[in-house]
Amino acid sequence: MLHSSLCSEKSLWKGARRWFFYVVLSLMLGVLVLYSWFSPSWRALLIQSEASSPSDKTTVKTISSQFYVKYPYQYHFILDEPNRCRQEGPFVVVMIPVAPQSKEARDIIRRTWGRETRVLGRLISYYFLLGKSRIGNDEEPPDEQILNESKKHHDILQSNFLDSYKNLTIKTMVMLEWLSSHCPNTSYAMKIDSDTFLNVHNLVDMLLKAPRHDYMTGLVARGAAVLRDPTSKWFLSPDVFPEDSYPPYALGVGYVLSLDLPKRILEASKKIPAVYIEDVYVGLCMRHLGIPLTDPPHSGLFVVNMPSERTGCYFASVIVTLLQNSEQILDVWKTYETRPDCWTFNVSLHFLP
Hints:
By secondary structure, the chain is α/β, with parallel strands linked by helices. 42% of the residues lie in helices and 16% in strands. The radius of gyration is 32 Å and the shape is globular.
């Protein structure tokens, strides 16, 4: 009986010690957990671990962000012509987006269609719109070569965004900002790429008969399919734009708008996330405003694919033709200038009421 009692007491003592051990161990683990939570170094490691393993929602957001650009945003001009457009009051302002390093392209345009400053009694002004070739300090001055070019020609507008294909929407919206604030006495503006031939005579002739308000024209794409192939240059994912086709928009190679539109498009842009496909984005803003795009008076005036077989009077019959590169403008201009016999015929053919 005594042996049985001693065994029972020993078992109780072992159980108590085991229980005490577990309590102490739990307290120690609790203290360790609390220390790790409040310790800055441990918390940093925890945050870093969470960041390296994002949730599905974060992943989708990151993937989607590549299709958007930073706009609206307070960009500013590091090179400007603050008074020229207001003082001149041109009938048309032609805006030419171009890379900062593409001085040759700018010089070619100045020597060809960009030298036509008065046509059919109307004044035309030309400006080259540049971003920055690199991003550093926002107050960084422009390159010396661009600064000298600006002093000589007074046609350079350079803003402080990074000049890249993905930022063409930013470039377009900055252009609209400048037009809205600098050209109160101008009727129309045209945006045109630097590797494009522009027939300024036909442009002015068309605009003399065009509406002065709610007017945008060019090569209007209607019912264009949204490209879902990730390898495409113009790929847009369904979570960014779920519709199968875009609303009507004017192809960015060259389009015209009345000067009442820039301010309204900028207002619409505050409510529509800015996708990187610039001409599509302008079309989205126009749809939001409820303003339809206008087709040009003739289907062959704004041309992206120039016909391989064409008559000698072809360049007198168009307004815009996309070329292979800016150097080709020189050859086209020579052809155009040497055929004045084509001008009257083609203008009367396409613009008869």
